[in-house]
Specification:
The complex is a heterotrimer of chains A (about 325), B (about 400) and C (about 300).
Chain A: H1 2-18, H2 28-51, H3 59-74, H4 80-102, H5 107-127, E1 144-145, E2 149-150, H6 154-176, H7 179-189, H8 191-196, H9 201-227, H10 237-250, H11 257-271, H12 279-293, H13 298-308, H14 314-320
Antiparallel strand pairs in A: 1-2
Chain B: H1 2-17, E1 36-42, H2 53-67, E2 70-71, E3 74-82, H3 87-99, E4 105-108, H4 112-125, E5 128-131, E6 148-150, H5 155-168, E7 173-179, H6 182-197, E8 201-208, H7 216-225, E9 229-233, H8 236-248, E10 256-259, H9 264-270, H10 272-275, E11 279-282, H11 290-303, H12 309-328, H13 333-340, E12 345-346, E13 351-355, E14 361-362, E15 365-370, E16 383-389, H14 391-394
Parallel strand pairs in B: 1-3, 1-4, 4-5, 5-6, 7-8, 7-9, 9-10
Antiparallel strand pairs in B: 2-3, 11-15, 12-13, 13-14, 15-16
Helix pairs in contact in B: 2-12, 3-4, 5-6, 7-8, 8-9, 12-13
Chain C: E1 2-3, E2 6-7, H1 8-39, H2 46-64, H3 68-89, H4 99-121, E3 137-139, E4 144-146, H5 147-169, H6 171-181, H7 183-188, H8 193-215, H9 229-240, H10 245-265, H11 273-284
Helix pairs in contact in C: 1-5, 1-8, 1-9, 1-10, 2-3, 2-4, 2-8, 3-8, 5-6, 9-10, 9-11
The chains are: A mainly alpha (about 325), B alpha/beta (about 400), C mainly alpha (about 300).
């Protein structure tokens, strides 16, 4: 079964790499957008799934990444790599601030603090003169990466985005499977024990918050470069809700489950147009069904099913650290 | 660059003459991918569904059917998508349509953020986009191109319609209730300028967040300002709630509300009791004359609703696009653009309308007054014509446009 | 007399309006607080039930000729029924799990309800007439207050007091409080806890619907009328202290007033101020203004 999963992963990777060659089948820009959301959701899950912290303000990081990247590229005429870096760092810095304030509380209170702060961030971008309010920041130049790669070329852009997002996802994976990640899980499972073991829990939480926010900022930065625009939708609390949704639908007890959730949500909003005005209702019903049927998320469920049959493989999977059952 | 220059010269020359060549159909060049494809990019499921939505798709389909469904044997196809009021979704879909799906023209484009993003994509991809249901002046200024057309109305026509007419009728002091969005600020600014130029005075403004439900506080502020006119620079639910609150707190009728962007659907939703006496600038009203009635009744049969100005604009602009393609004898965007900007538009929607080099369709705008419940004699009998604002006065003077196509 | 450049009279007027708006928040947050207290679920659909209440009143009026006063009673009952059905069929399947699943489930319901009403009634909404008896206005000296707004305050306060009485002074309320504290133990005493939970959810969303009917004549009835309200009401409940019914009501009223003054001094910020207040309150008082310290 493990080999089956691997095979699927390799096939998916090959398919993703081949996307620009077959724009008729699936449109590369749509794939790029989905990739951004995949990174966003996996980064978010560093907090929710792996540390047990529910943030309801992640749109602030995604949106800041997009706006700051846009600002640097459009108004300061910085090259793409510096603009993206600036967006990512802004996301991370904001994450450090959010984290430092929010982690003094836990559970729903923590979620509400992050929501509140992201609303303040939203207000800032609504008022700031450079964002164009609801019109959005339009015509952000894509520029060239390292003075070499012309990002106006859609194929080049695709592979740059692909590589960047893959890099981001690798960071997520490394974090989860590092001693640092093990401490995070300890915090999630039993915080007082982690404290009594001498871990500086608060510092760990702020660091993971910063990391998660930085990667979210990176996702936002890439989005701004891809679409050449940054808009209020990215900082709106609906986006904070969407990422929770993606993560849960994909499976919050997995590393890359949220990516599958992101794919599902993007695909739903992209391919359900024939339903016309009914689309909202249909999406609502799908979500409802998912919560009731796939409680551990699509990937979580898949792993569950795959794992149930060959019991002897269980150890191997656990050692890989790819999965963790909710029990 | 060479072609652009020639294009401008041709367009200017044609505009000077006033009439393009209807007869000059060159049949040889043919059509890309053997189909003329029109995409309707609209809000199918959000807050603007009543303004455009499925009915906008239907309006475009009607135009295609009335045109005959084909162009010299080439079929015409209509597809649609929901932009969900997200500029990035809109931009991505537009790009996909142009690049992969062979869409020749995108219509409707409600939501000004989406409209601007798509105008940008249209310019880059050199394909047509026609904006019918959003007001941003950027379409004919910084985002202008030979391929973007702004058809039905814009912020300038709203300001110079309602604003100017009211000042001329003696409304000298103004207080604004403005939605704290670029759209609201732009409208407030434009009307303020009109008011000041006409010798009026702006005594204050309150800017409320989008989706404010309760306007009572603003009603009191408006009352305290003692302005004669309360300019409402918002639309949809915000405008409706504002109008209701002004009436509830007795601000009206002592002070007159002026809704700067009120749609036919908003009047329908408010009801005549609450809306009576309101002045609004709309480019189209279903019951204006024989032709509008004929179109509207057919539209009503298909959709179950009366068309608003965006629906009528969707129909008229699609027809104009198809006529231009026919006249050009090809769907080549540059050739079509040339025809679009040289041929006059004469239908139930516009009388002698023409498209300026910056993409602005110039046609008369109308100011309407909402009837009292007693004056309404049949269903949807809501409005009465107050004045006609000639297109040349309603729209931004060409010399003020920052469109690069005008630089020479 | 002026205060920060605004006449005192005008400020009194704004204070009055703040109380009117605050009473909406109070009823809404009361319902949300009760639901959270017993079900431990953040009812994201609260705004949608508010909208549903307004629409039920509207439909009852236009299709069945039921007048406002009857609707004020019927609509909350109908909505409570729908809510209980939802609780019985779906919501109870996620009890005991991470509260986030309840959030997601109720969020899906928002999509279904708002989307459905948008399909059925369009996005621009419907007008609902103010009842004949309340069309006048009262001159308070410093302002003209429409009678209907005064009625809103009276009705809200009455409902809040009645709810408080039921919870604190009746046997049913005692069961409810017992179920909140120790649900298994309460069940062991032979009390039907699942039924109690269903009833609580019904009551909570019924309160939201009641606020919806109150809102129908003054706020245009449209499918998205509750969508922005919901996070504000969350904030109110959290500021008041989760689980504190008194806190929810007082904070609701207080927020109305704060928001009202913000509309005078920095109007653009009026829909954001609640969040600033929340951050400040939570940093100073971890469990909200009237809550007990978190466990």
């Amino acid at each position: 079964m493990q080999t089956a999963l691997r095979l699927v992963a390799v096939l998916a990777l090959a398919a993703l790499l081949a996307v620009p060659l077959f724009p008729q089948i699936v449109y590369p820009v749509f794939v790029m957008q989905t990739l951004c959301f995949m990174l966003f959701a996996c980064a978010f899950n560093l907090l929710l799934g792996h540390t047990g912290i529910l943030s309801f303000g992640h749109a602030a990081f995604l949106g800041s990444g997009a706006y700051i990247t846009g600002y640097c590229a459009k108004f300061l005429a910085l090259p793409a790599e510096l603009s993206i870096l600036a967006g990512t760092l802004t996301g991370a810095a904001l994450g450090a601030v959010f984290g430092a304030l929010a982690i003094r509380r836990s559970g729903i209170y923590l979620a509400m603090i992050t929501l509140a702060m992201s609303q303040l961030v939203y207000f800032f971008y609504l008022q700031a003169p450079f964002t164009g309010a609801e019109d959005g920041m339009q015509q952000i130049p894509r520029g060239t990466l390292f003075g070499l790669l012309d990002l106006h070329n859609d194929v080049t852009l695709y592979y740059v985005v692909f590589a960047t997002i893959a890099g981001g996802l690798w960071v997520v994976w490394r974090t989860v499977n590092s001693p640092f990640g093990a401490v995070l899980r300890a915090i999630r499972e039993h915080e007082p024990r982690a404290i009594s073991l001498g871990y500086p829990v608060a510092r760990y939480k702020v660091v993971v918050f910063t990391l998660s926010a930085g990667l979210s900022g990176l996702a936002g930065s890439m989005k701004a470069i891809i679409f050449q625009l940054a808009a209020l939708n990215d900082v709106h609390w609906h986006t904070s809700g969407d990422v929770v949704l993606m993560t849960l639908l994909g499976g919050m007890n997995t590393v890359f489950g949220p990516a599958a959730g992101a794919l599902l949500v993007s695909a739903l909003t992209r391919y359900l147009d024939p339903f016309g005005a009914w689309v909202t209702v249909v999406i609502g019903v799908v979500f409802m069904a998912c919560v009731l049927v796939f409680r551990e998320g699509i990937v979580g469920k898949l792993q569950h099913v795959l794992r149930r049959r060959p019991r002897e493989k269980r150890q191997a999977v656990d050692r890989e650290g790819m999965v963790r059952t909710s029990e | 660059m060479q072609t652009r220059k020639t294009l401008i010269t041709t367009v200017l020359a044609a505009a000077g003459v006033g009439l393009g060549g209807m007869s000059g159909a060159a049949a040889s060049t043919g059509f890309s991918d053997d189909v003329v494809r029109i995409g309707v990019l609209t809000d199918m499921s959000g807050i603007y569904t009543d303004l455009s939505g499925e009915a906008a798709v239907e309006a475009v389909r009607m135009a295609v059917e009335d045109f005959g469904g084909e162009l010299n044997g080439t079929p015409i196809e209509v597809i649609y998508a929901d932009h969900r009021n997200d500029p990035s979704v809109g931009a991505s879909r537009a790009r996909e349509w142009y690049e992969s799906d062979g869409v020749d023209m995108i219509n409707d484009l409600s939501n000004s953020g989406v409209a601007q993003a798509v105008a940008g994509v249209a310019k880059e991809q050199q394909r047509h986009a026609i904006v019918n249901s959003s007001s941003t002046l950027a379409i004919t200024n910084e985002h202008c191109s030979p391929y973007a057309t702004h058809y039905t109305y814009d912020a300038h026509s709203l300001a110079h319609g309602t604003g100017k007419s009211i000042v001329e009728e003696g409304g000298e002091t103004w207080f604004f209730l403005t939605v704290d969005f670029a759209f609201g600020h732009g409208l407030e600014e434009a009307v303020s300028e009109v008011v000041r130029n006409a010798g009026g005075q702006v005594v204050g403004a309150a800017r409320h967040p989008l989706d404010t439900t309760d306007f009572s506080s603003y009603a009191l502020q408006a009352q305290a300002s003692q302005a004669e006119i309360i300019g409402i620079a918002s639309t949809g639910a915000d405008a409706i709630n504002a109008i209701n609150s002004l009436a509830e707190f007795g601000v009206t009728p002592d002070q007159q509300p002026a809704a700067l962007l009120l749609w036919f659907d908003d009047v329908d939703s408010l009801g005549l009791e609450a809306a009576q006496g309101l002045l609004l600038t709309n480019a189209f009203y279903w019951d204006a004359d024989e032709d509008t009635r004929a179109f509207s009744e057919r539209f009503y049969e298909r959709t179950g609703r009366m068309p608003n100005m965006a629906h009528a604009g969707n129909y008229s602009s699609t027809m104009h696009y198809l006529n231009s393609v026919q006249a050009a004898g090809t769907d080549d965007p540059d050739a079509v653009s040339e025809k679009m900007r040289s041929m006059e538009i004469n239908d139930f929607f516009a009388d002698g309308g023409y498209i300026r080099p910056n993409g602005r369709m110039v046609h008369d705008q109308y100011m309407w007054e909402v009837k009292a419940p007693g004056e309404s004699e049949y269903d949807y009998d809501y409005m009465e014509l107050v004045s006609t604002i000639p297109g040349e006065e309603a729209f931004q003077p060409l010399e003020e446009s920052t469109c690069y196509l005008l630089d020479d | 007399m002026d205060l920060f450049g605004v006449p005192i009279q005008a400020l009194l007027g704004q204070l009055m309006l703040g109380i009117v708006n605050g009473s909406f928040y109070a009823v809404l947050s009361l319902g949300l607080a009760i639901i959270f207290g017993v079900l431990k679920i953040v009812n994201f659909a609260h705004g949608a039930f508010f909208m549903l209440g307004a629409f039920v009143a509207f439909m009852a009026g236009s299709y069945l000729g039921i007048d406002y006063w009857a609707a004020l009673l019927i609509a909350p009952l109908v909505v409570a029924g729908i809510g209980m059905l939802f609780e019985y069929l779906f919501l109870r399947r996620v009890y005991g799990l991470d509260p986030i699943y309840g959030l997601l489930l109720t969020f899906s319901l928002v999509l279904v309800l708002e989307g459905g009403f948008r399909v059925a009634f369009g996005s621009s909404g419907q007008a609902y007439a103010t009842p004949e008896a309340l069309r006048g206005a009262i001159n308070l000296g410093f302002m003209i207050l429409p009678e209907y707004r005064a009625f809103v305050v009276a009705a809200s306060v009455t409902v809040c007091l009645a709810t408080w009485y039921v919870i604190e002074r009746t046997r049913l309320g005692a069961y409810l409080r017992a179920a909140t504290e120790r649900s298994e133990l309460t069940g062991a005493f032979g009390i039907n806890v699942p039924l109690l939970v269903t009833l609580t959810y019904g009551a909570g969303v019924g309160l939201a619907a009641f606020a919806g009917v109150l809102a129908a004549p003054i706020f245009h009835v449209n499918p998205s009328m509750g969508s922005t309200l919901v996070i504000i009401v969350f904030a109110v409940v959290v500021i008041g202290g989760l689980g504190s019914i008194f806190g929810a009501v007082v904070t609701g009223l207080g927020l109305g007033i704060v928001e009202g003054f913000t509309r005078v001094f920095y109007s653009e910020f009026s829909s954001t101020i609640v969040f600033l207040v929340m951050v400040l309150v939570l940093l100073v008082r971890p469990a909200g203004l009237f809550g007990r310290t978190e466990g």
